[in-house]
Amino acid sequence: MLSVLGLGPLESRELINPSAWPTMQCSLNLVLSDRPMKIPKRIIPLVEDGVVDEVLRQLMSGKEATVYVVRCGSEIRCAKVYKEAAKRSFKQAVEYQEGRKGRNSRRQRAMEKRSKYGRKQQEEAWHNAEVDALYKLDRAGVRVPTPYGCFDGVLLMELVTTEDGEVAPRLNDVLLTREQALEDHEVMMGYVVKMLCAGLVHGDLSEFNVLVDDYGPVIIDLPQAVDAAANNHAKSMLERDVNNMTAYYGLSAPELLNTQFAKEMWALYEEGELHPEIQLTGYFEDDQTSADVDSVLLEIKAAFEEEEERQARIRSADEPDA
Ligand SMILES: Nc1ncnc2c1ncn2[C@@H]1O[C@H](COP(=O)(O)OP(=O)(O)OP(=O)(O)O)[C@@H](O)[C@H]1O
Ligand SMILES: [Mg+2]
Fold this sequence. Notes:
By secondary structure, the protein is an alpha+beta fold. The chain has one domain: Transferase(Phosphotransferase) domain 1 (Transferase(Phosphotransferase), domain 1, Orthogonal Bundle), CATH 1.10.510. The protein contains 9 helices and 11 strands. A 5-stranded antiparallel beta sheet has the order 2-3-4-6-5, covered by helices on one side. Helix 7 runs antiparallel to helix 8. The protein binds adenosine-5'-triphosphate and magnesium ion (MG). Adenosine-5'-triphosphate (ATP) binds next to strand 2, strand 3, strand 4 and strand 6.
């Protein structure tokens, strides 16, 4: 069980510094006894449409969005309100957009023209990208918060909590035993494989975008997810995602640091041999082709230099003696 109170060395997952975890005060019992807060402007349309009943509290304000705890009927959920494009940071960089297509060609053309209508379409595409990825990954067997739709730029999803009713901490706030780190790393590699089989690379996977509940890791924050087949940066993003995860779990289980899961996965993916239940080894033998190309280039260079020397010798032999 996840020890939110830092109970002792036998717990396999423990909060590093409970007092520093801002949502520690956000036990659901406390939230429920809170008086609902003033409804943020962007959530008003959802209340008017009856999708949300109350806003209980603000959970987090990140770089890209503000997250609230809301009540929808008898369910407590989470509402992620995206910041406007101008206030967002790196995730809308061009490399993430590559290979993304509008839902129809008129939209696609508008998005490319960057007119006011085009920018609005682009915003909508950004908002929908996360909810689409959540539905896709949920179906593919990756643990993500269950999505409940995206309305006017507000994503409604499951609030991930521990069994004690605390909002789940992020992985960077959790200390793992070696065994737990090995187990969770294996689970995480399985999720990355399933994502890739579903055609997606997270693109910003790190210990800050993984929550941990009593059953293990839950992946969040997917608006920038890239299309594995259509984006030329997909391979490098996959490597970065996997290496971030391995480096974090490797803090508790250093033997992970010698593994090469990203290379293994990508090679299988390219060969069309990756499937969701595959057992990876973490071992990958680098193809020697690049080394061969290097040695061919060296040989060409040597032959070229030899020829230059030969020409120089001929020239100096032809020159009349001084
Ligand atoms: N479904 C959820 N359940 C519980 N907590 C959540 C959930 N979704 C998000 N959070 C909390 O809100 C924080 C911000 O969410 P998220 O990472 O999706 O947004 P963000 O603005 O893109 O963040 P950042 O730019 O800081 O990575 C998370 O770090 C997490 O603590
Ligand atoms: Mg985040």
